[in-house]
Queue: 2 jobs
Job 1
Amino acid sequence: MLKKIIRKHPQQYYSPVGNYTHITKIPAELDTYQFSGQIGIASDGTIPSDFNDEVAQLFINIKTLLKSEGIEAENITKVNIWSVEPIDWDFFDQLWDDYFKEDYPSMTIAYVQALGLPEIKIEIDISAAK
């Protein structure tokens, strides 16, 4: 029987301050995937100048990439978010919650001075197991 990824919060520990899980346990028999950081670049090679448009395109790109490997939201174990601008959490969480429902992965968020190209405002890298 194939084991499932386990997500949990330790007892007597603080509740998450966002939509994530404190602990994600990956059974040894699952294949693990490490995806390069993804950006909100459109298929024509342009990056939207509006931050929320870039975030929306980023989620489209992530879903497309993960689908190419048969990865579903439930398979995602860790997400790292790097942003050079303040994130509009109301907008971001709508996309996040729509994708993950309540099966949230572990997550780290960092505000940084710059990313790989000057026009990139946000980048997300993902780990998964299936």
Note: The radius of gyration is 15 Å.
Job 2
Amino acid sequence: MSRAPRSPCPSAVSLFVYGTLRDKEVRDAVAGKPIAPHRLMAAQAHGWRTVYFPGAHFPGLVPAKGHSAEGLIISNLSKSELDRLDLFEGADYVRTSMAVMGTDGPQMVEVYLPAIDIGDDAKEWSLSRWARLHRRAELAHYRATLFKDLDERTNR
């Protein structure tokens, strides 16, 4: 697993998540500890659409006029949480800044965008479909490999 390229960001980082990290069990395991509910806020990325990442069960965001991608803002991420997130997202994504609409108004946040071009015709991705079809198997795989790797790489 390689590290996702990162953009410069301030010490208290907020991150927009739109895919499997919206699942509490995945999010907490990747972060290395439970993320308190007060650090989470519903949000939308206007002008973006959540689609399947090519050849995978997880998503990517693509620009799409007239659409909005549903997600969550995770606030006040620590350096160790960001390090773990960067490892989790790997080389498939690039962390960058973007504006999203939170429940209390617009915010500039970090987001992981696909490192490859995903075509406009990519199939729509949904968390509920992923949970129904892939959650159990992917969590078992993550527990057996990825989460242990994250713990080893971040000395937890």
Note: Confidence is low (pLDDT under 50) at residues 1-10.
